[in-house]
């Protein structure tokens, strides 16, 4: 909550106050001027680039769990991820209304198998199993430490923090769609709070039930696809297949929405001169940024073969930089534009209360850099 709630409320205020295509790029430009806006646009584009590349990779991983015939490696795996990207690109070119309708449908399809797991596992819920060491012996504790450290001598705290924050980030991306929302002052706060509640429940409840169902000796070996295995062992193969399919649909739905937002970030970046003017053009009837969408998709084809963990670390390092600038923009715009209408505002005073509200996420942004792997830092510095 120290991360996701401030991002969501910040997005609600700035998105309602400045309902322009491009969202975060426009906010920082209004607050700090063209130089910082250019730096922010570059880093935001790179963050979106690596983040969007995660979902075709996850799509292939979940289908691997769904059926052995879909357990691909090498070129076939790449082509499977690429075919998913092609479908999402075509859907985005069809317009934002289609993106929204498909995302709503996929939300129901994705949440439903985890809801079924919670219902089936509630009778066996064991809170003592939630604490590593509470229900396991010393050997299992050693195995758990080895799993977290990646088999090395120490815990990879940078990777852990990046994954943890990545799972609860991205709310500010919808700020890029503010110009296409009928009443952002009303709808953004409702959407942000509703999303945080739903996402928190979808993470916490299935994992809590899964840990209670699974044997203590298995906990150190948890990895991608473990909930499907737990469902198969303790509920039935039908639920395992349903969860794996839900995970694949989740990856499809998330890329569908994020590509839509990222294309509008590209448009805004082109409008301030960071990218070629061609990418700023939108279709006169549908409002779809066709050139930006196609350019993003083409770039994503080039990085689909990178490992999942590396993509997350790269993405979150750049995202941490841009998120920090967005919170500073929130504080600065409260000072610069006192008279600008704010259909929604974070319910805090303009000085120290607002600064205190922004301090925890700013601290987490700084921690991302302090704990980052060397390769991630080198890529960030090279981009700068």
TrEMBL record:
InterPro entries: AA/rel_permease1 (IPR002293), RMV1-like (IPR044566)
Transmembrane segments: 78-99, 105-125, 191-213, 255-275, 287-308, 314-331, 352-372
GO cellular component terms listed in the entry, alphabetical order: plasma membrane
Keyword terms of this UniProt record: Cell membrane, Membrane, Signal, Transmembrane, Transmembrane helix, Transport
Protein localization: Cell membrane
Chain segments annotated as coiled-coil in the UniProt record: none
PANTHER family, per database record: AMINO ACID PERMEASE-LIKE PROTEIN, POLYAMINE TRANSPORTER PUT1
Family: Belongs to the amino acid-polyamine-organocation (APC) superfamily. Polyamine:cation symporter (PHS) (TC 2.A.3.12) family.
Name of the protein: Amino acid permease/ SLC12A domain-containing protein
